[in-house]
Design brief:
alpha+beta; 4 helices
Length: 120
């Protein structure tokens, strides 16, 4: 017997379906947020590869951040994943907020990625 999907799972499915419609061969910037950390990945869905990734757990950011669960940390993660993506040859991405609302830390990460040179 299958369990009924949670509201969050339905939001994830809905946003992922909308991304597939408008993706046009672009890679996906996927965001995951927890109470303590924030994670970002550049994923090529056609090849099934992660091209770049960054999080507040990264050694590059660990010493620089005062807190790992605030907007400043999310902006730093966005800049780092953006720099790594540009280094990997990626300029345009689709933003996958992963069912999280586009405000606060998720928005800060997106703004940081835009500052680093990604367009979406």
């Amino acid at each position: 017997m299958q369990k009924k999907p949670t509201a969050k799972q339905r939001r994830v499915w809905r946003t992922r379906a909308q991304l597939r419609k408008g993706q046009n061969g672009r890679v996906r910037l996927s965001v995951h947020r927890t109470g303590m950390h924030i994670y970002a990945q550049i994923i090529d869905d056609e090849k099934g590869l992660t091209l770049a990734a960054a999080s507040t757990i990264d050694k590059d950011l660990r010493g620089k951040l005062k807190k790992t669960a605030d907007s400043d940390a999310a902006t730093a993660v966005g800049k780092l994943v953006g720099e790594r993506a540009v280094k990997a040859g990626v300029k345009e991405v689709c933003f996958d907020r992963g069912g999280f609302a586009y405000h606060g830390r998720v928005k800060a990460l997106a703004d940081g990625a835009r500052e680093a040179g990604l367009s979406f």
